[in-house]
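User: Some background: our group keeps a shared notebook of sequences we're curious about, and every so often someone picks one and asks for a predicted structure to add to the entry. Today it's my turn. The entry only has the sequence so far, pasted here. Could you supply the structure so I can complete it?
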Amino acid sequence: MIEFGAVYYDGRTSARTVVNVRGLAHSLHITGANVNIEVPLTGIRVDARVGDIQRTLDLPGGAQLKTDDHGALAALFPRANRFEAWVQMLERQWGYALAAVVLTAVFTWWCVVYGLPLAATAIAHTVPRGIEAKLGEQTLATIDKSLCDPTRLAAERIEAVRKRFDTLTAGLNDGFAYRLEFRSCKQIGPNAFALPGGAILVVDDLVKLAQNDQQIAAVLAHEIGHVHNQHGLRMALQGAGVAALIAALAGDAVTMTKVAVALPTMLLQSGYSRAFETEADTYAFQRMKAVGLSPEYFADIMVLLEKHREHAAGTKEQGKDATSAGAPGTLDYLSTHPATAERIQRARDYR
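Assistant: Of course. Here's the predicted structure to add to the notebook entry:
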């Protein structure tokens, strides 16, 4: 028989009673002043041992026992004791501890680099189109508030670009409400952005830089590829982390729209990943071919954007004044779209 001393709390008052506890075959017999109860072992939960700190036994009905007789508890609850002994053994082994740190670091890296993108991709497909469109609207509102002014392009010029856009989006039937937005954004420079849900923002300076409407259509095809593959939503989910993923899975529209606050910054400063850009380029080439446009136009506009960037960088270095899109410090299209030479070659080689 195993006996040990403990302090008993009935779970209803703060009164403490010193008791004697006897371990029987399948129960504990607890006796003390005004206490005489028997509790089945299967109904008792014992907390884990931490050094020599007093331990708690949770009894049915909210009552508790507190004792520091670790030996008696080890004998009465051997299954829990084996687990605790294993944990304590690991805690004393520096090699195991170091391995655990390394494994934790590797797992964290995998989650950030691969796990979170995979989760974002899977969950993006479950987000209702209405919520995705709302995220795009909120993102556009943020851009309008802090970065852009209404377009200064002539109505005829806008209409010509819209016709190209309508040709590219005709018959897609992929669930997105595609629409084109024009803005004057001097701090951004020649650029275009695909927003979640179907809106595509074109900066005036991009239209002015292009030599023809086919080149503008090539950029639009690329941005349509971003919308079609939900790159904006997936990037927003990855950037916001696990909380946003869970909110998206639950269909929480309020939480999802809060992600829009950070999305413009991600689009402007970090841009899409190389994998996203390659995927959008491939979609653009396929779509251009489908409507009778050569991917060469994509290569041509990329060359113009590269020259623009080089000119802007040279102007900044020389300390000279520059006007409109060429102003030092502006964000051009290629600043958020890496590996320009490789992409130009892919467009020229595409068949």
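Suggested note for the entry: The first strand starts at residue 2 and ends at 9. Residues 321-332 have pLDDT under 50 and may be disordered.
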